[in-house]
Design goal:
Methenyltetrahydromethanopterin Cyclohydrolase, Chain A, domain 2, single chain, 11 helices, about 350 residues, 15 strands, about 30% helix, 6-stranded mixed β-sheet, alpha+beta
Length: about 350
């Protein structure tokens, strides 16, 4: 955490959603500092996570959670909590979709705006030479990608290490890590990356683990002030690994058709947004994502972006003591996507 003297707090008054006071000292939350602790544990005990630790010639550090390793639930938990900047907690349980037993991921955060938009959002496309990855995690709060997100939530990090989560089939090389370091304005030896393909156990877990983020993201896209959200709790089924061609659709369907979210907030105006939150309101709703993508000619720009939302949401608005419910799960489509129907 960064420490601020009391007399300096006035200039930071807009950041009250991201500041804690402990024994008279104000602490500005650093998502990279918090995530670094999780990364260090993952790196030190990589074998116990079915992962592999690599240190490059330039000092950058990487943990492979599924490219050339098996990964697993423990690695998936660490990967997801790193994505959330250390401000979220992940657990697993066995649940059911109709008569089928399915593992579920449960995620909660008490800092939803920073954790979900400031860290977990996959808002940074990493392209360098022939390397490509979708970047998420706390390093984004240093590179400010995309900048508009951080202007809206009024947060940016200030830390000397950058921790990034990469969704990719390949590990980054030294040049890629150099580029990330440059964008984050840190030394390359202080750049840490966790990497997993979408089509892997960790890939399935970390995408399903974005269930709360999809709700926060949707509200942000609707121009709702997400800083008014006090906490978020979500659950979604962990989809089976069905191969690279189906991975993107199967992982998204977990939240689109069976993601269930509870948000607690102090925002009476939320009643004006309710009907637009769930995926059920999307034009493309009702088919597995891979079918929708195929019908769109594999062109993302032809897909209604409102589809990327949770299936069902309950909101507790505490200033008026109101509780709202919107959306519903669609077990049939989820099971069809998972190959169970």
């Amino acid at each position: 955490m960064r420490y601020l003297k009391n007399e300096s707090f006035e200039k930071y008054y807009l950041f009250t959603y991201h500041v804690l006071m402990v024994k008279g000292v104000f602490h500005v939350l650093s998502v990279n500092e918090l995530a670094l602790e999780i990364f260090e544990n993952l790196a030190e005990y990589a074998e116990e996570f079915n992962a592999a630790y690599h240190e490059l010639d330039n000092g950058a550090r990487i943990v492979d959670c599924g490219v050339s390793t098996r990964g697993g639930y423990a690695a998936g938990r660490a990967f997801t909590e790193i994505c959330m900047g250390g401000l979220g907690e992940v657990n697993f349980r066995m649940g059911q979709i109709k008569e089928f037993p399915v593992p579920f991921i449960d995620v909660f955060t008490d800092f939803p705006s920073v954790s979900c938009l400031g860290a977990q959002k996959a808002g940074w496309t990493i392209k360098h030479n022939n390397y490509f990855a979708m970047g998420s995690g706390p390093a984004r709060a240093l590179s400010l990608k995309p900048k508009h997100t951080y202007e809206v939530i009024e947060y940016e990090d200030d830390f000397d290490s950058a921790v990034i989560s990469l969704e990719s089939d390949h590990l980054p090389n030294g040049a890629v890590m150099e580029k990330i370091a440059e964008d984050c304005q840190v030394d390359v030896a202080n750049v840490c990356a966790v990497v997993a393909p979408t089509s892997s156990i960790v890939g399935s877990i970390q995408v399903a683990g974005r269930c709360v983020e999809t709700a926060i993201y949707k509200l942000n896209e609707l121009h709702f002030d997400t800083r008014k959200i006090i906490s978020g709790f979500g659950t979604a089924p962990v989809p089976p690994v069905r191969g690279p061609q189906l991975a993107m659709g199967v992982t998204n369907d977990a939240t689109i058709y069976h993601g269930r979210i509870m948000l607690t907030m102090k925002a009476p105006d939320i009643k004006d947004y309710l009907e637009k939150i769930p995926s059920t309101k999307s034009k493309g709703y009702g088919k597995p994502f891979n079918d929708i993508f195929k019908e769109a000619g594999y062109d993302f720009y032809k897909i209604d972006t409102s589809l990327f939302s949770p299936a069902e949401v309950i909101i507790n608005e505490v200033s008026e003591g109101a509780v709202y419910h919107t959306g519903m799960v669609n077990p049939e489509v989820a099971l069809k996507s998972f190959g169970l129907l």
